Amino acid sequence: MTGLLQALGRVLLSWGLASCCALPVAAQWYEATQPIMGTRVHAEVWSLDEADARRALADVMAEMHRINALMSPYIDTSELSLINANAARMPVSTSRELMELLARSARLSELTDGAFDVTFASIGRRYDYRAGAKPDEDEISAALPAIDYRHVLLDWQAMTVAFARAGVSIDLGGIAKGHAVDRAAAILRSRGFEHASVSAGGDSVIIGDRMGQPWTVGVRHPDDADRMSAILPLEDTAVSTSGDYERYFDENGVRYHHILDPDTGDSARAIRSVTILGPDSTTTDGLSTSVFVLGLEDGLALINQLPGIDAIVIDGDGNLHYSDDLSSLGSQ
Ligand code: ADP
Ligand code: MG
């Protein structure tokens, strides 16, 4: 019986293909995945037209590559690297896009009392998580005064960036992926896609629903990549997760990972992961890094005062905590 149905299906399919031009073609999902910005970039769209979908997905990937070339600290010719190499000696001409992201980062630094600070890299660049290398205490105390977002001077007339002192380095790793995802989502919206998603590592924007169902985004277990601590049904939102398991090494039972407390130059260790929900991915990305540094109490206090933003925190014991608007989830 099954064989008969399959055969019938093949006949119908070949008939459908042969006479496709007379029949309406059904809409379907199209997706693309690429490694960009040191992470996995993924985009999916629901479309009636394959060519439209493929063009949009290619444009999303091109946009991600463009932003990487502008903001990567690993590319010597990126604008960000040119700033790091020269801005302590002279003002460096910079694109409006990068200036605006630096200005937005500075506003986030004000909001978080310096927990988010792109000059963390003044010490952050001395860690090599793959090689298991970290700065010693003397290096940290010598470099610590260079961490302060107020050292980054933006001149909007001249369109330049300068550093107020030597030893300052910046890195947009805590917000650039969110920015890239927002730009990609804007491309998809402008082409009229109403059901789509785009993500770069732990930062995603979700457009519409998944055709009658919500999208689901998992919050992984901090110690087991194959286990989910929570699964969130979501529509029309941005979501970002920061965890201490992305880039790290363990030494003598202490985890050295990629989110630094700007006050100490050491990894922030109060919690294991933070997921932020909000209107756009630049906001959720920046806030996930911020709340990771702030820790459970101060982090949730900040989120609870921001309308339209929610958070899920996994503490050091693996317990989940929710911001006020989500707290009904915790009692289910
Ligand atoms: P991921 O990059 O794993 O998605 P996050 O969004 O939390 O996770 O960003 C972590 C990155 O943020 C680090 O790799 C680093 O580039 C940057 N970063 C680390 N500490 C800070 C900080 N205190 N303020 C701003 N950016 C930071
Ligand atoms: Mg972030």
Helix-strand category:
alpha+beta
Number of helices: 10
Q: How far do the termini sit from each other?
A: 44 Å
Oligomeric category = single chain
pLDDT < 50 stretches: 1-20
Total DSSP E strands: 15
Bound molecules: adenosine-5'-diphosphate, magnesium ion
Radius of gyration: 22 Å
Largest sheet: 8 strands, antiparallel
Fraction of helical residues: 25-40%
Number of domains: 3
Identify the overall geometry.
Answer: globular
What is the CATH homology-level superfamily of the largest domain? Answer: ApbE-like domains
Stated plainly, the CATH topology of the largest domain is called: T-fold
CATH architecture of the largest domain: Roll
What is the residue-averaged pLDDT?
93
The level 1 CATH classification of the largest domain is Alpha Beta
Percent of residues in beta strands? Answer: 25-35%
Largest sheet, order of strands side by side? 1-2-6-7-10-13-14-15
Topology as H/E string? HEEHHEHHHEEHEEEEEEEEHHEEH
